[in-house]
Input
Amino acid sequence: MWIRGFSFWIKGCTLLALISVISALKPELGSTRVVFQTNYGDIEFGFFPTVAPKTVDHIFKLVRLGGYNTNHFFRVDKGFVAQVADVMGGRSAPMNEEQKREAKKTVVGEFSEVKHVRGILSMGRYDDPDSASSSFSILLGDAPHLDGKYAIFGRVTKGDETLTKLEQLPTRKEGIFVMVY
Output
């Protein structure tokens, strides 16, 4: 009797551990959505506030302030990433002081077990793991070499056809980067 109960307890613990791993790999989206309007169609984003709360708050603040208005994708590497330019250097419109203050802030690296797969939103950064500011990438394919090294904060919820159109844009090679003309 004791062995049967112990076996049941072990199976229950194993099931809970498996559920925990699965939920870490497929986190729940929060209710807020943001739509980026491009010349090729709209892209709707959902966010993972339980995975990267500071990053999500920072991005939300930049969006509310209009920081991404008139910004652009400066890098599109087919099957890898479409990268949104840093707010400070990527906008074609001038910034007000509040936008500048927020855009200059960096966010602590909130690395997780979530995988870098197509549609994931992942912060750009320099070598310093705590140097992410406002540039981010939309994954256009699976990139396991980025897992645990870049903060994932959301995913595309609508607009995959727009990502496919972005992948067709003419590009040029600049060192290791594939840049949009």
User: Anything to note?
Assistant: The radius of gyration is 19 Å. Residues 12-24 have pLDDT under 50 and may be disordered.
